[in-house]
Amino acid sequence: MSESLIEPVDPEQLAAAGESLVGRLSMDQLPRVKALLGSSGEAARALEAECHFRFGRDEMARLTLEGEVSTRIPMECQRCLEPVWLSLTTSFSLVIVDSEAAAEALPVEKDPLFRERRLIKLATVAEDELLVVMPQVARHPDVQECGSLARDDRLFVDEAVDAPTVSDQAPKQRPFQVLAGLKGEKGRRR
Asked: Domain residues for 32?
């Protein structure tokens, strides 16, 4: 069933009917994801995230929401500062809970989803799941795909850098050597 994923839904009703919801969310409907797109955010307005949600109950009769969210977004490569297109796909399995106590009672391998007034917002769930899989530092997979800024910078190129080796550097002072010397002096003062 394909529906608008913006309106809050009642997971109890959907689980009782064994419903699945399929739809698309625009980046305008995912403001926290859009904010991370930086200067590419305006170009991403036409982009969408494809979402699949399945409601049901698990073996313990707990209310569940399973699904997948996928999209392709531009982010700023942190090596060359040019756009890099990333494909994001995530699958999730959540247990819908009403309280902290219910969330704490879940097994470690189960993730809770808190609902308000018996309703959940699927756009928020999709956005949360995308934020989890977004890289903290976006960059092209290979430096050769980067713009000229990174390709011209010798630090990113797979060439030997003429950095001094450990044996070329001045000998390091051992930090506890100073303390040993002080201890020896203190013993001599008595």
From this structure: 11-152
Residue 143 domain flag: yes
Longest dimension (CA), the chain: 88
In a domain, 130, yes or no: yes
Distance separating alpha carbons of residues 22 and 1, to the nearest angstrom: 6
Residue with tokens 């009782």: 16
Q: State how many domains the chain has.
A: 1
What helix, strand, coil percent values describe the chain, rounded to 5? 35, 30, 35
Cβ within 8 Å of residue 100, ≥6 positions away: none
Q: What digits encode the pLDDT tens for the residues 118-159? A: 899 999 999 999 999 998 888 888 777 787 766 565 454 444
In this structure, is residue 168 part of a structural domain?
no
DSSP H stretches of helix in the chain: 11-16, 31-35, 100-104, 122-133, 148-152, 175-189
Tens of pLDDT, residue by residue over 76-85, are: 888 888 888 8
Query: What residues contact residue 155 under an 8 Å CB cut-off, 6+ apart?
Result: 161
